[in-house]
Amino acid sequence: MIEWAVIFLLLGTLFVVFYLYVRQGNRIESRAREIFESWQVREQEAMSRWQAGELERLSGEKAQILFEGWRVREEEAIRSDAIKRSESVTRGKVTEHLVPFFPGFPFDPRDARFLGSPIDLVIFDGLSEGGIREIVFAEIKTSRNPVLSRRERDVRDCVNARKVRYMLLHFPPEGDE
Question: Residue 136: enclosing H or E segment and its boundaries?
């Protein structure tokens, strides 16, 4: 009988140990699942950050490559356009200086004085003949669609409004009083 008691005691102990083993296995599995899920979330976040950084880097590289391609394709056109514009401006400046000598110029070229800015010419009509009949402010435009700049319009408006005057500015040499 004692043997049966020992057997029941051993079976009971075995049952308790088995129960504790199963319970501890469930805890370990649950804890392992928590650790794995936590690791998985961190890895996904790290991967997302890496992908975002990689995507940003790749898009920057792609933008740089596209820009370089565009620059290479368009550089010749840009240079050509700049040269044409420069030639046009130079041609206009030369023309402004030479207009008084063109056949259609309505004044004696000797009466014209080049200023360049804010107007191109001041013409003292009659100066070469000994008597000034009128003073003309002239702006020369060589483009197909001439447009006055703001400063040129201001000069035109002052002249048209007769806001023009003559002033003698006298600066005697130092020591003279």
Answer: strand 134-138
Residue written as token pair 């009988």: 1
Q: How far apart are CA 158 and CA 76, in angstroms?
A: 44
Taking Cα atoms as reference points, which of 137, 135, 128, 142 lies closest to residue 96?
142
114 burial type by CB count under 10 A (0-12 exposed, 13-18 middle, 19+ buried)? middle
Report d(CA 175, CA 10) in Å as an integer: 134
Q: What is the pLDDT along the chain (177 residues), one digit of tens a residue?
A: 888 888 888 888 888 888 888 888 888 888 888 998 998 998 888 888 888 888 888 898 999 999 988 888 888 888 888 898 888 888 888 888 888 999 999 999 999 999 988 999 999 999 999 999 999 999 988 878 889 999 999 999 999 999 999 999 888 888 765
- 1, 30, 31, 33, 41 from 38: Cα distances, Å: 55, 12, 10, 8, 5
Task: Report helix, strand or coil for 85.
Answer: helix
Q: What is the pTM of this model?
A: 0.52
Strand arrangement of the beta sheet that strand 134-138 belongs to: 112-114, 121-125, 134-138
